[in-house]
Every structure is written in structure tokens, then in C-alpha cells.
Amino acid sequence: MCVFTYGVQIENLQTLMLIRPPDFSLTDWRVFEVPLSPSDEAPTLHLVGWATSHARVSSPIFGIDPVMRACQTRSGNIYQFVGNPARKLDVQVTTLWQEWKLINGISSQKEVTDQIVLMFQRSNKQFGIWGKGLPPFFPRDCFLGAVPGEQLKFLARRIDGHYVVGPTEEELRERYELCMRLSIQYHCLYLDQVQQASPNAEFTPQLAEMFVREALKGWDLSAQEREWIIDKTASMR
User: Fold this and answer.
1) Domain ranges of the chain
2) Full 3-state SS string of the chain
3) Packed helices 223-235 and 169-197: angle between N→C axes, nearest 10 degrees
4) In CA terms, which of 41, 102, 211, 228 is 20 to 30 Å from 174?
């Protein structure tokens, strides 16, 4: 089912694009559709929310990647949707959004956040991103640090009054979700590349491994996480 707003058919924006890490990760986000001036131009979608400690309004969105929960804008930036959307925009983000509309001569808007969330939910269900337990042998080396010396000493972090060595369950779940999404993403991108080269070409695990290993260079991943993603991608059919 396609979702229509003022003039943007949101499902047509769905694409696979995130071949590199996002430029901004937005929390407490919402998405709005606005009619640009002059009126003969198509309406545009804009992402509004917090990027670390700064409120942001994106330039027009022209592609949404539901697998990686990300979008690419006209300016070339890639934004990642982190967590659930804000129930209500806070004062600072609301003020920035109102100022942006005033500067750009926008007098009306329509909320399309629910449609974006629905797109993400459908993708999660299609690829089985949710509903599966954490694999017992998923890498945990991303959070391990050690101090050199005669005796091996691991670094610990103080969390809620306790010293923790290695990842918390929440951190491990977040890393697993990222690695799982990257596995699905690069599997789909590799298949698309194969089909473009030859409609009758078959999936080759060795070539898929080479493709993914090169694609992952820009991501902040541990050595074991990279190998897990490569193995996972190559094993998919």
C-alpha cells in the first residue's frame, strides 16, 4: 500500500542507499511535509530533531532507507533515525522549525512521522530484524579495552554505581542491530549489483565477501564485528 500526503508518495522514496556511515544521527525526531513556493513545485519532506547537542532541520529528503533507518537529503547529508520519534517536539526544536518555515515562506505543514514509522516497521518484519534473540556467539570485543603490562588488565566503566567490563545488554543489543542491518543492507546491495551486471548471474559468497569487506571500511566496527557481518552476508540467500 502506498502512502500519499500533499503530493509526496512516500513509498516511492524508499531505497537502499547507506553505503557509508551517516553524517548525523537524530534523536527525538519527527518528519513534516511542506508545500514549497512557488506552488508548482512538489512538496518536500524534512526531518527535524536533535543531532547530539544541536537542533537541526534537514534540507528536502529525496530517499529513505528503511533497512538502515536513514534518509539522504538534497544537500547530500545522510541522517539516521535513532530510537522512537519524539511524542512532542521540545521548545528549542519547535522554535528552530518555526524560524525555518518563516524564512522559507512556509505557511502550512503536514505531519508524516507515522508513515515513516510504518515503513520502518514493515522493513523490520520483512527482514526479521526484530523478534530474534541475540546470537550466543555475537562479538563482544567492541567494548573491551586493556592496559599493557606483565599482567593483562581489562578496562572497566562505572555505570549506575557499578564497574562493568565489556558491553551492557543494551549496548550489545544496539551493536547487534547495527551489524544485522548492515548485513541485510550489503546483501541487498550486492544482489542488486550482481543483477545489474547480468540478470542470470548467481550469488557468489566469495565475491560477496570482497564486496562487503570493501564497503565496511568507513564504519566504526571492531575486527570481530566486521568478520561477523561478512560471514552473515555471505551466508544469506
Assistant:
1) 10-127, 141-235
2) CCCECCCCEHHHHECCCCCCCCCEEEEEEEEEEECCCCCCCCCEEEEEEEECCEEEECCCEEEEECCCCEEEECCCCEEEECCCCCCCCCHHHHHHHHHHHHHCCCCCCEECHHHHHHHHHHHHHHHCCCCCCCCCCCCCHHHCCEECCCCCEECCEEECCEEECCCCHHHHHHHHHHHHHHHHHHHHHHHHHHHHHCCCCCCCHHHHHHHHHHHHHHCCCCHHHHHHHHHHHHHCC
3) 50
4) 211
Query: What torsion, rounded to 10 degrees, do the Cα atoms 97, 33, 130, 137 define?
Result: -60
> In the structure grid, which three cell numbers stand for residue 154, read together?
581489562
Predicted model pTM: 0.78
Residue with cell 557499578: 162
Query: For residue 185, what is its C-alpha cell?
Result: 543492507
- Look-up of cell digits 522549525: 97
Instruction: List pLDDT tens digits, range 109-156.
Output: 999 999 999 999 998 888 887 666 788 888 887 755 544 555 555 555
Buried/exposed code over 190-210 (b: 16+ C-beta within 10 A; e: otherwise): beeebeeeeeeeeeeeeebbe
Distance in angstroms (rounded) separating the CA atoms of residues 121 and 84: 11
Neighbours of 74 (CB within 10 A): 11
C-alpha 40/C-alpha 37 separation (Å) is: 8
Q: Is 169 exposed, middle or buried (0-12, 13-18, 19+ CB in 10 A)?
A: exposed
Low-confidence ranges of the chain (pLDDT < 50): 1-7, 146-147
